[in-house]
Amino acid sequence: MTAPTHTAAEVTVGPVTDLTPGEGRTYAVQGRQVAVFLLADGTVRAMDAVCPHKAGPLADGQFDGAAVTCPLHQYVFAFDTGVCTSDGVPAVRTYPARIRGDTVYVEI
Ligand code: FES
């Protein structure tokens, strides 16, 4: 008997027209609050929406192509790893995200 393994499933988040370049948006995806960001280059990034420091709304943070800054205390979280640049703050979980056609998908 083999141990159960978790396989990420691609989940539809919503139409890309819901997103505005330079702004994040929080979605409920399979019981998680996921922040999705539309970058200036037209690609998307996704991570858990709640800042692990003191629960700030990461979707409301400023971001560039590499990271988002939490709006409450300005801690910075990398899109690729979820790692915070400040010592002692846990990483957030990140999710592969993509646009296909007119729809945004994340892998949960
Ligand atoms: S709540 Fe996000 S940095 Fe403090």
Query: What percentage of amino acids are in beta strands?
Result: 35-45%
What ligand molecules are bound, each kind once?
Answer: FE2/S2 (inorganic) cluster
- In CATH, the topology is named Rieske Iron-sulfur Protein
Order of strands in the sheet with most strands: 2-3-4-8
Shape: globular
The CATH superfamily title: Rieske [2Fe-2S] iron-sulphur domain
Order of helices and strands: EEEEEEEEEE
Assign the CATH architecture: 3-layer Sandwich
Count up the domains: 1
Query: What's the main sheet like?
Result: 4 strands, antiparallel
Keywords: 2Fe-2S, Iron, Iron-sulfur, Metal-binding, Nitrate assimilation, Oxidoreductase
Pfam families: Rieske_2 (PF13806)
Domain Rieske: 11-106
GO molecular function: 2 iron, 2 sulfur cluster binding; metal ion binding; monooxygenase activity; nitrite reductase [NAD(P)H] activity; oxidoreductase activity, acting on paired donors, with incorporation or reduction of molecular oxygen
Q: What does the secondary structure layout of this molecule look like, with pairings?
A:
Blueprint: E1 10-15, E2 24-29, E3 32-38, E4 44-48, E5 62-63, E6 67-69, E7 76-78, E8 94-95, E9 97-100, E10 103-107
Antiparallel strand pairs: 1-10, 2-3, 3-4, 4-8, 5-6, 6-7, 9-10
The structure holds FE2/S2 (inorganic) cluster (FES).
FE2/S2 (inorganic) cluster is lined by residues 51, 53-56, 70, 72-73, 75.
Key words describing this protein structure:
mainly beta, Rieske Iron-sulfur Protein, globular
